[in-house]
Design the sequence.
């Protein structure tokens, strides 16, 4: 009896019972009951397609692989993820009869070079990116001239609460880049960058600043692997076209000491390339799951050590477990060792690991929360 | 022989040959070849779903009904609309094996209370809403406090080119409402209101102004038919919450003579209700496919005749052909007769009919193009 009980308990520990407290995901379209999430982080999908042959919900990086849905008696297709998902935002899509479609229950988010479905697993620390009753900044869509690409281009500019109140006040600027396959909508839609800043500013934890977000895959059609990546088209748009537009249309502090560049994944890769090619442009640098700076990187670039007041590097803890610390095509390095090397040389290096998250937006929301308070303080 | 030839010619006139000059719709996602449109206004769809049993593209109002797709040899589903579609923007979705999904080839637009697929039939007058190399205004997302609904609410504010240049300049404001099932994204995404204004201002045809757009289905869950519509929740948000926020966060001219209210379809219905209940609030009024003002309406509302400097009413020509001149639940009226009645009484009434368009966004893009130049001129 004792042995049997223990075996049962172990089996239960291996596959804990799914708690039936499912609620609609916070990213669902108005009035839509599915997809749902429960308190353990399981996702449940329900799709109406009575004549379909097969329906599958396919979650991206950090998920548990695809979830095959089964046809229910009412003709709908229902399925629950094989295990709990990590906290935070996940991209996914449906595979229906061999085709790829979005889940009509939820909102879409630009990732993988297309608008994808999204689901939100409630996080224990979700308050820092929640829509709270605090003063809110604005997010402005701007269309700026771009002679180098021959068409007006789009950027979004976050202006902090109070920006309109004093016409003489000027602000520092963070240029913030998305990852591969995403676009200039990612940092506000998936990342909630504006709400993170609103909350940090309301708490007095960060200095009010502008955040500028634009499309970083400028040489769109040429981007294959990152190894053959040419930074020049995007660098031209960012430094020669967008930055002058922002400095002339917003009340910025237009010098290196009040200008930061950061990015996630491919955006971090771009950040490192641009800041080492232009050490006079940015005083604060952030790489979120997108590479690291070695002492050789910093000291091998004339002027960079003196110019940069902060090197910030972050990863999701699951990326480090899996040693997936660099974008595809870049040799893996130990980010902690690089960080310690910079510290030992007296360089202001900060290293952050997001607990229990992978190469996904929850790591990057937290990275922004950690990074923004360090900006423009010295 | 002669008779046979003539019959053949007539048959051809009834069903003209489809010209094979199809191009990807301008609303397609990056790199997507389908849906396509040709120079006659036909739409062609192609969907990958090799194991599906049936695939249909269903176009909305103003379209030609649904288009059944047939399975091609490569496993894709292909079909061409039975006839040409009207110029401009159309909502649609796919029906796949009895389920409703969006076309992965194209962008989504909020309509019918959900994000729908969109397709754009090139119009002969498309230049007025094209992205041109002119100075562009910004579109700001604002989150304003709303005690009446208990949550911060979203609005978009268009600020014209030059708004940032002179901190002392103040601007008139147009509040512009979407239709039933749409939201605050509709006027810029589907309507291209910002580009229409940029182009009008570049031409010197309209006075630079702000446009404010927010969600008009405030009592969301209660809205069944328009006959039982309660305007008070939205009126409260608009007049008591949004308007004070705009006047305190933007450099507005905050008086009746520099404030307009207009809306399309249900938004016109709301506009008429709000302007007659609050004749002191708005000096310029526009109803786009959303009702008319009779002389009795104007003279039966104390103060309205003196307050309103412009009554603008518009329809798509196909709405008048079909006598579909009022929102569902409202008795049909003759908009021309009402217009003539106002004119005869010395009231500044303008009536516009968009040629060859129905209850769709091309009528409303053109309505804005006609309406905006008349604003804040007297």
Sequence:
């Amino acid at each position: 009896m004792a042995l049997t009980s223990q075996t049962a308990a172990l089996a239960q520990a291996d596959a804990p019972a799914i708690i039936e407290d499912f609620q609609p995901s916070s990213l669902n379209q108005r009035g839509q009951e599915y997809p749902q999430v429960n308190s353990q982080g399981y996702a449940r999908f329900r799709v109406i397609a009575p004549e379909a042959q097969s329906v599958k919900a396919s979650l991206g990086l950090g998920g548990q692989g695809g979830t095959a849905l089964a046809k229910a008696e009412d003709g709908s297709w229902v399925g629950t993820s094989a295990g709990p998902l990590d906290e935070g935002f996940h991209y996914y899509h449906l595979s229906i009869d061999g085709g790829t479609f979005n889940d009509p229950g939820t909102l879409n988010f630009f990732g993988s070079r297309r608008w994808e479905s999204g689901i939100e697993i409630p996080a224990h620390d979700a308050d820092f990116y929640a829509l709270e009753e605090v003063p809110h900044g604005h997010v402005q869509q701007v269309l700026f001239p771009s002679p180098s690409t021959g068409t007006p281009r789009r950027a979004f500019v976050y202006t902090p609460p109070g920006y309109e109140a004093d016409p003489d006040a000027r602000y520092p600027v963070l240029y913030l880049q998305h990852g591969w396959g995403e676009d200039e909508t990612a940092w506000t839609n998936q990342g909630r960058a504006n709400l993170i800043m609103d909350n940090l500013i309301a708490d007095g934890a960060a200095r009010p600043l502008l955040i500028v977000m634009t499309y970083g895959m400028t040489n769109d059609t040429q981007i294959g692997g990152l190894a053959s990546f040419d930074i020049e088209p995007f660098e031209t748009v960012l430094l020669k076209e967008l930055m002058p537009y922002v400095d002339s249309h917003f009340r910025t502090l237009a010098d290196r000491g009040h200008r930061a560049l950061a990015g996630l994944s491919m955006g971090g890769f771009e950040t490192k390339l641009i800041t080492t090619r232009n050490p006079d442009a940015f005083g604060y640098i952030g790489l979120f799951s997108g590479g690291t700076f070695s002492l050789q990187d910093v000291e091998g670039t004339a002027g960079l050590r003196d110019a940069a007041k902060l090197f910030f590097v972050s990863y999701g803890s699951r990326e480090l477990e899996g040693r997936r610390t660099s974008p595809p095509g870049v040799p893996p390095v130990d980010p902690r060792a690089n960080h310690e090397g910079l510290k030992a040389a007296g360089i202001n290096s900060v290293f952050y690991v997001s607990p229990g998250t992978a190469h996904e937006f929850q790591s990057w929301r937290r990275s922004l929360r950690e990074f923004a308070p360090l900006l423009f303080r010295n």
About this structure: The longest strand of chain A covers residues 88-96. Chain A touches chain B through 46 residues (CB under 8 Å). The first helix of chain A runs from residue 2 to 14.
